[in-house]
Amino acid sequence: VLELNASDDRGIGIVRGQILSFASTGTMYKSKFKLIILDEADAMTIDAQNALRRIIEKYTDNVRFCIICNYLSKIIPALQSRCTRFRFLPLAAEQIMPRLNHVIEAEKLQVTENGKEALMTLSGGDMRKVISVLQSTWFAYGAVNEENVYNCVGHPLPSDINSIVNWLLNDSYDTCYKKIQQLKLNKGLALQDILTEIHSCVVK
């Protein structure tokens, strides 16, 4: 098995070097396949993907390729057509929480329950994002709670959204506009994030 992170070595050199060298050598057991795993393959250049396509064609008898990507649109059609696609749904909270608790205990971090919920909400079912935001929040604040998590990623707090919805329902247009603009400037919030959260709040 050869496992590579394609985002570290994006160019054609890694394909013509390590991958070709591994694929071109035979196996001791005729019935066994070699396995090449390429993580974050969507970071590879077009030339590298074309070179990989030719290797897949040539060594398909004894090698199987597992190509993992975040954005399918960044994988060239010629490479997509040679693969069977498997799409994975975002992880559920009950799948993320045990691993999150394990990391918190192993690293001896101070994390509140609402901090965990904030990590779940903002991750969108992405375990890697949960760990990344957890790490960033801890380094930035030394404690992981709801407010620190939201501030770390620059996302509007639920309390901010509740305030905005209240303004929209009760204040005049001009007053509401000024208050939202002031909140954006004070907290460095993105309008898209605000609109997304307001939409979610209204739908609920």
Automatic annotation (TrEMBL):
Protein name in UniProt: Replication factor C C-terminal domain-containing protein
GO CC terms: DNA replication factor C complex; nucleus
Domain named Replication factor C C-terminal: residues: 156-204
Organism: Solenopsis invicta (Red imported fire ant)
SUPFAM superfamilies on file: P-loop containing nucleoside triphosphate hydrolases, post-AAA+ oligomerization domain-like
InterPro entries found in the cross-reference section: DNA_pol3_clamp-load_cplx_C, DNA_Rep/Repair_Clamp_Loader, P-loop_NTPase, Rep_factorC_C, RFC_lid
Swiss-Prot/TrEMBL keywords: ATP-binding, DNA replication, Nucleotide-binding, Nucleus
GO MF terms held by the record: ATP binding; DNA binding; DNA clamp loader activity
PANTHER family according to UniProt: REPLICATION FACTOR C / DNA POLYMERASE III GAMMA-TAU SUBUNIT, REPLICATION FACTOR C SUBUNIT 5
Domain of life, per lineage: Eukaryota
Record GO biological process: DNA repair; DNA-templated DNA replication
